[in-house]
Amino acid sequence: MATESLLSIRGVSNTYVSHAWGIVGKKIAKPVLDNINIEIAPGEIFGLVGESGCGKTTLGRCILGLIDYRGDILIDGVRQDSRGRACTRREMARRVQAVFQDPAASLNPVKRAGWLLEEPLRVHRLGSKQERLKGVDETLDLVGLDSSYKDRRVNELSVGQKQRICIGCALMLKPKLIIADEAVSALDVSVGAQILNLFRDLHQTLGLGMVFIGHNLNLVYYLCDRIAVMRGGRILEQGTAEEVYSAPKHGYTRELLKAGEGGLT
After folding, report:
1. d(Cα 226, Cα 207) in Å, to the nearest integer?
2. Cβ atoms within 10 A of the Cβ of 108, count?
3. Distances (CA, A) of 39 to 45, 47, 57, 184
4. Residue 127's pLDDT is what?
5. What pLDDT is attached to residue 121?
6. What pLDDT is stored for residue 83 in this prediction?
7. Average pLDDT, 10 consecutive residues per value, the chain (265 residues)
8. Pick from 222, 150, 227: which is nearest to 192 by CA?
9. What is the dihedral of CA 185, 186, 188, 190, to 10 degrees?
């Protein structure tokens, strides 16, 4: 069913509960997200930018259904929550996938790349063995690697190649939405630029929607159609990339611009 929004985030809040003085201490509730509202259109690249601890990664985990929250998150019109009341996690995995910051931590180092790429299809029981292997070859081509890479173990790959395999794994179930959480921050500048361009190519080729989470506003501006600036669990401002970058309304946004003047790092 077609919907106006690919991702709809309505009044989402999250509270982290910690214990003072260790495990037997008094519980302390710390707000992490405060009434977040975002609408993302199909095929749009939306940037979430802010300093570490502002809540942007927590919001990404809420979208993925990995942690609890209050409010509503709908992906392609289907309600998502961490309790799976409206949709099972298996079903939601075919709508949204993630690419994380550290590719080495995301991949089993002793497995071959082809095995890892095929795994989502095996888990979801999609296709015959021949069809799955064909899908692996097609995905390797999409992420800029030739078919010989399917026989390489993860520990034989460079960090940039590992991140390409992570992106390929996220694409295998043909999701409509990718959450890219600091997906280039662990890479050097040249490799990070290559991965950014890969995201742009995949967006154009596949019509992927994407939430790109980062702390460098210059970098987010380069990739994204629209941007939301977060601080202290709240959205301070959001608008088109050009509006936020060229005419920021909030002083904190101007601070982020100054902090990122070194370029796409």
Report:
1. 16
2. 12
3. 11, 12, 17, 24
4. 93
5. 95
6. 53
7. 78 82 67 95 96 93 91 87 59 89 92 97 94 96 96 95 97 96 91 95 94 93 95 96 94 86 43
8. 222
9. -60
Distance between CA atoms of 104 and 163, rounded to whole angstroms?
8
CA distance 263 to 208: 26
Sign, Cα dihedral of 189, 195, 198, 199: negative
End-to-end CA distance of the chain: 39
Q: Please tell me the distance from the alpha carbon of residue 144 to that of residue 88, in angstroms, as a whole number.
A: 32
**pLDDT the model gives residue 23:** 58
Residue 233's CB is within 10 A of a number of other CB atoms, namely: 23
| Beta pairing class for 7-19 and 70-75 | antiparallel
Q: How many residues does the chain have?
A: 265
| C-alpha 15 chain-centroid distance | 21
List of long-range contacts for 86-89, beta carbons under 8 Å, 24+ apart: 89/65
Look up tokens 């982020």; give the residue: 256
pLDDT of residue 265: 39
Which pLDDT value is given to residue 79? 82
Q: How far is CA 245 from the centre of its chain?
A: 21
**Other C-beta atoms lying within 10 Å of the C-beta of residue 125:** 6
